[in-house]
Amino acid sequence: MTGETASALTSAVVTAVGSRISHFPEENGNMFNGDCAIICIAGLLGVHCLPVWMKRSDFRKTHRIRGDGCSDCMVAWCCLPCSVAQLNMEVKDRAASARAGPGAGYAQNHAPMAYKPVA
Question: 103 or 82: which carries more pLDDT confidence?
């Protein structure tokens, strides 16, 4: 896979995540939205991690997920595709739990959004 293909796929997932967050907990958002333009422009400017960092931080605050902006920044900067995939799974899992109704609870099927520094 070329770098351009990887970048396009990451951008597509970022726009899908942005749509899921905007329409939370529904899944019927539009994939081509303002996030698409923002991630493309950020990529052209070489700061592709900024929109993902902001989305991670906002989602973390909204859903009271432990962590901080510094760890969000480091994850988005060091491994953008990993950060996007992790945020995507977190949004999907929480949306499914929210659609299941009250009392269903949130069952996290994977590790929480947390950066674990290497010693």
Answer: 82
Q: Where are the beta strands (DSSP E) in the chain?
A: none
Structure tokens at 99: 């659609």
Phi-psi map region of 101: left, alpha, beta (phi>0 left; psi -120 to 50 alpha): left
Block residue for tokens 């953008």: 80
Smallest Cα–Cα separation from 40: which of 18, 72, 57? 18
Report the chain's C-alpha Rg in angstroms. 14
Q: d(Cα 119, Cα 105) in Å, to the nearest integer?
A: 35
pLDDT digits (tens, 9 = 90+) for 18-64: 778 777 777 666 666 777 778 778 878 888 888 888 888 888 888 88
DSSP 8-class letter at 98 = H
Q: Which amino acid makes up residue 42?
A: A
Q: What spatial distance separates the first Cα and last Cα of the chain, rounded to whole Å?
A: 31
The pLDDT of residue 17 is 80
